[in-house]
Design brief:
The structure holds two protein chains of two kinds.
Chain A: H1 5-11, H2 14-20, H3 29-55, H4 65-93, H5 95-99, H6 102-122, H7 129-132, H8 140-166
Chain B: H1 2-11, H2 13-19, H3 24-51, H4 60-88, H5 90-94, H6 97-122, H7 124-128, H8 135-165
Helix pairs in contact in B: 3-4, 3-8, 4-6, 6-8
The chains are: A mainly alpha, B mainly alpha.
Chain lengths: 167, 166
């Protein structure tokens, strides 16, 4: 599939050139943005993994699911927003390359699937969380959502790191 | 001195065999990121609680009881994958000053975490209550946060600066 015109146009902006390191002063832009991305994704992955493992009934078994999600998800979403901003900045710097990169494509498919999984959980078994907040093991639908989530997010990390070796 | 050692390692049979597996470095680095995420998120949750940031949830001692064992497990994975990457590309690591800076920081942070985790466990009531929490708890939380951020930043920057020293 051909790279959309808007991505090609974004790649031609001065901002994109700066992030690529093609403009004086921007030599360290990409590594700095990438470091911010790593710190943000570490917070996302770490907090998501804690919730997922609790939904699988493996860790923090003494804590209520609703207490754990209330405590962790605000950090997950804050860090996710930072990861999206830093990721977008890196993407537009070489959008033609990333659009056509199989690892980047696989990463975005996994992110979409993780989103669907979260949506199904949230509007499904999570609506009745009060009934199974302390149940061990948690209901099958919750274990399923937790298992899928940790698998997908691990794949996202692997595909994400792999992009750096194929571009 | 470091360079000579690195070149010796790079020339060894084991390093050569590992260098020939093309997916090993990407796979090891990805595993490294998964493990650092567990360690970093755990450290941040405990530190934020000690700083009094965030609402509701568990106390600092409850968080530490659950999360510090996971930090040690993650650290083992980090040391293993880091050692593997160093075995495959020893020169890249050994000639880069921030690699050594990172190693020193990791040792100091691990010792500091061990000390705080024990103190927190033995003085849970005092440390969990913001009114009686000693100032050293806040100092630790700030040092630990800044320290792990620096470790991650150094780790990412090794890949960008090592060629200046090679």
């Amino acid at each position: 599939m051909a790279t959309p015109g808007i991505l090609l146009a974004l790649q031609d902006t001065t901002l994109a050139a700066f992030i690529r390191g093609d403009v004086p002063g921007g030599e360290w832009a990409f590594p700095i943005i990438e470091t911010v991305h790593v710190l943000a994704l570490a917070t996302v992955y770490g907090t998501v993994a804690m919730v997922d493992l609790r939904m699988l009934g493996l860790v923090s078994r003494e804590a209520r699911v609703s207490k754990l999600t209330g405590e962790l998800l605000p950090w997950t979403w804050t860090a996710f927003a930072i990861a999206v901003i830093s990721g977008t900045l890196m993407y537009v710097s070489k959008s033609d390359t990333y659009w056509n990169n199989p690892q980047a494509q696989a990463k975005f498919i996994c992110m979409a699937l993780a989103g669907v999984n979260m949506f199904v959980y949230h509007f499904g078994v999570h609506r009745r969380v009060a009934e199974w907040d302390t149940a061990l093991p948690p209901p099958f639908a919750a274990r399923m959502a937790g298992g899928l989530s940790i698998l997908l997010w691990t794949a996202i990390v692997f595909f994400g790191r792999w992009i750096g070796f194929t571009t | 001195m470091f360079r000579a050692t690195a070149e010796q390692i790079a020339a060894s049979g084991l390093s050569h065999r590992l260098q020939e597996v093309p997916w090993l470095v990407p796979a090891s680095q990805s595993t490294h990121i998964v493990a650092l995420s567990v360690l970093f998120a755990s450290a941040m949750l405990i530190n934020l609680r000690l700083l009094g940031v965030g609402i509701g949830g568990r106390t600092a001692s409850q968080l530490a009881q659950t999360l510090v064992p996971w930090m040690w497990r993650a650290l083992i994975v980090l040391l293993f994958t880091g050692a593997l990457q160093t075995l495959i590309e020893p020169v890249r690591q050994f000639v880069t000053p921030i690699f050594w800076g990172k190693m020193v920081l990791v040792v100091l942070l691990a010792l500091l975490t061990r000390w705080v985790a024990r103190t927190l466990r033995d003085n849970a009531a005092q440390w969990d209550d913001a009114a009686t929490r000693p100032a050293v708890a806040r100092v630790f939380a700030l040092v630990s946060t800044l320290g792990w951020v620096t470790v991650i930043a150094f780790g990412r920057f090794i890949g960008y600066v090592w060629s200046y020293y090679a």
